UniProtKB/TrEMBL annotation:
Its EC number is 2.7.4.25. It comes from the Bacteria. Keywords: Acyltransferase, ATP-binding, Cytoplasm, Kinase, Nucleotide-binding, Transferase. It comes from Tichowtungia aerotolerans. InterPro entries: Cytidylate_kin, Cytidylate_kinase_dom, P-loop_NTPase, Plipid/glycerol_acylTrfase. Pfam families: Acyltransferase (PF01553), Cytidylate_kin (PF02224). This is Cytidylate kinase. Residues 267-382 form the Phospholipid/glycerol acyltransferase domain. Belongs to the cytidylate kinase family. Type 1 subfamily.
Length: 446
């Protein structure tokens, strides 16, 4: 039997979720689950019973009394409520207009999420909705977030409604989608968001086949042997132990907030850089949570012994002469997509005076394309211990402070494409500066 896959596809209305989820189900032999249909089902039932769909106290008793039966036909889940299958009525206008209010009710969500999770017993699933990757199956590695610009989505939904014989105007459809998107992404309970680790696909750029190809390609990439294997764990452990002990004895190194580094999934650790001691300091402290790939200038690999060591501990060689080294960037992006942890120094090179420098433009590109959250880190004291201009190593204390995760959602809120890259770099440096300020004010104690 092939392994069980739970493919989670989220996104706003008419972004193409059901189309691609059906396609994935067909090609990968999964059961297709339209979770929106469950919320529509609850709404349909309430409208049938004449229940006020804005009043949770009226909805809950009717929902709890209703009997739901599930069955799989043509590789998709269907349900009946109290013996009636709602079918196409789920797409009716009254249901469409009321569903976001119903879906915002925590008790309804609890009911639906619990039923969705039970479907795991059916085997592999391609499930689409708003919170599949963030709430229903947060542990699945196969998370996708589909999006498309609002005009394109409204155009698609309008064409669909016209084909069903409805008479809504394009403008009305657009407004209805906007209303629903707003409710779905601002509600308190499980709002629509990009789940951490989700792979974002802008479907306005592709036809259906194109989206399916990207999605299936991503699944197949995830199933390739992990590039994490670039790290030899024994070498890594020995190097961290050795360097960590050295830093403890000589610099009394202390770490704060290391638990902010998630134990799994693609993540970037972004630290300030003032000394050669920063990579070993960050590597040794982060080791408690996970192994980390650093990026280092390729000239360090020239010495064969050093080169062999750096390769074994998973360091990515970076050609600093060539502005943005695309090969190194691609390696780092692939590692992030494979769920690895990549550490980098947004300032590019060591600070000449110990002060924070602006981020290099490449960092924004890497963060945007790697689609991973970022842990900001402030290393304090490494400049005093071994700066660019000092004669050598000093036994000064070093502290490594890990800040709260900058989520993909915050990053996406800065916009898309090239214009967002410098903003991403600025945001990261701002978070590092806040950590510096808090640490220096004595506000960070554990
Ligand atoms: N990539 C695409 N290009 C063009 N039309 C698409 C694409 N993906 C989906 N559609 C069409 O857009 C409409 C909405 O797609 P659907 O999969 O139902 O969206 P969702 O499930 O996100 O609401 C459907 O009529 C579908 O055929
Ligand atoms: N996992 C989900 C799926 C849908 N929903 C809600 O159900 C509504 C209908 O979902 P749907 O997937 O059928 O809608 P479309 O994207 O097909 O227009 C959404 O607007 C959400 O309010 C949700 O809250 N969580």
């Amino acid at each position: 039997m092939s392994k069980q896959r739970i493919i989670a596809i989220d996104g706003p209305a008419a972004s193409g979720k059901s189309t691609v989820a059906r396609e994935a189900a067909k090609r990968l032999n999964c059961v297709y689950v339209d979770s929106g249909a469950f919320y529509r089902g609850v709404t349909w039932k309430m409208l049938r019973e004449g229940v006020n769909t804005k009043n949770p106290l009226a909805v809950l008793p009717v929902l709890l009394k209703s009997k739901w039966k599930f069955e799989v036909r043509d590789r998709a889940v269907f349900f009946s409520i109290d013996g009636v299958e709602p079918g196409e009525a789920l797409r009716d206008k009254d249901v469409r207009e009321a569903v976001s209010d119903i879906a915002a009710m925590p008790a309804v969500r609890k009911f639906v999420v619990s039923n969705l999770r039970k479907l795991k017993k059916l085997g592999s699933l391609a499930m689409e909705g708003r919170d599949i990757g963030s709430v229903v199956f947060p542990k699945t590695p196969y998370k996708f977030y589909l999006d498309a610009n609002p005009e394109e989505r409204a155009k698609r939904r309008h064409a669909e409604l016209i084909a069903r014989g409805e008479t809504e105007k394009a403008q009305e459809v657009m407004e209805s989608l906007e209303r629903r998107d707003k409710k779905d992404s601002t509600r308190k309970a499980a709002p629509l968001k990009i789940a951490d680790g989700a792979y974002v696909i802008d479907t306005s750029e592709y036809d259906v086949e194109g989206v399916a190809r990207v999605l299936l390609g991503r699944i197949s990439d995830l199933e390739k042997p992990r590039s994490d294997k670039m790290i030899n764990p024994i070498w890594y452990r020995i190097a961290c132990k050795f360097l960590g002990m050295g830093l403890k004895v000589c610099n009394n190194i202390q770490a704060y907030g290391v638990q902010n580094v998630p134990k799994s999934g693609g993540v970037i650790i972004a630290s300030n850089h003032a000394s050669y001691l920063d990579p070993p300091a960050v590597g040794a402290c982060s080791r408690r949570m996970r192994m980390t790939h650093f990026m280092a200038r390729d000239t360090l690999f020239k010495n064969p012994l050093m080169g062999a060591f750096l390769h074994r501990v998973g360091v990515i060689p970076l050609d600093r002469e060539r502005g943005g080294d695309l090969k190194a960037m691609k390696t780092a992006i692939q590692l992030l997509k494979d769920g690895a942890c990549v550490a980098l120094f947004p300032e590019g090179t060591r600070s000449p005076d110990g002060n924070l420098q602006p981020a290099k433009p490449g960092i924004g590109f890497l963060v945007a394309k790697g689609a991973a959250p970022v842990v900001p880190v402030y290393v304090h004291g490494s400049y005093e211990a071994w700066s660019k201009h000092s004669d050598g190593f000093q036994r000064k204390p070093i502290n490594v402070i890990y800040g709260k995760l900058i989520t993909q959602e915050e990053i996406q809120a800065l916009g898309r494409g090239k214009a967002a890259y410098p903003l991403i770099g600025d945001l990261i440096m701002q978070r590092i500066a806040e950590l510096k300020q808090k640490f220096e004010a004595g506000e960070i104690t554990e």
